[in-house]
Write a structure and sequence with these properties.
Strand order of the largest sheet: 1-2
Helix content: 55-70%
Number of strands: 2
Number of helices: 7
Radius of gyration: 25 Å
Largest sheet: 2 strands, antiparallel
Amino acid sequence: MPLCMKKLIQNHKGGIITDRKSLKKREKDFCREYVYCGNPKDAALRAGYTVFPEMCGIRLLTEKRIKDEIAELEGKLAATRAEALCGYRRIAFGNISDAVKLILESDGDRLDAEKLDLFNVAEIKKPRGGGMEIKFFDRLKALEKIEQLSLSESDKYSVSLYKAIENSAKASAGGNDDDC
C-alpha cells in the first residue's frame, strides 16, 4: 500500500502521524498556496508535491499542525484584507474639508499640518506662480476595489466548499502511490 494512503488511513483512524512541531519548507509552501487558491491539489502541485498531488493535499489537510498554520495564515490575510478595505473606504467616502482648508489658508503659520486629515490626498504641488495644487485619489477606483474585495471574500467560501466536495468525491474514487 502506498505511503500516502497508509498515512491517510492511519490519520483517519485517529493515529498520530508525527510529533514534529515545525513544518518543513514544502509543508509551509503548501499552507501558503492553499490559503491562496483553496484547492488541495493545486496547492500541493505548487508546493512541489508532483506525484499524486491530490492525495498529498488531502492528507496534509488532515494534520493538525497544517490546519493550525493555514488558520494562522488565513487570519493574517483577513487582517490585511480588512486593513485594505478600511483604507479604500476612507478614500471613497472620506472628507476633503482639511484639504480645502489647506488651500484656502495656505499660510503655514495658521495651520498645524499634523492635525489635518489628508488621507485622500495623492499629491500636493506649489507651482512657481503661486497657489497650490492638490490631487486626490480616485474615489471611483476605490469603490471598484471595495467591490472586488467584497466579492472575492464571499466567492472564496462558496468556491472552496464546492472544491472540497469535488476533491472529496475524486479522492474516494481511488487512491494511488504518492511521494508525500
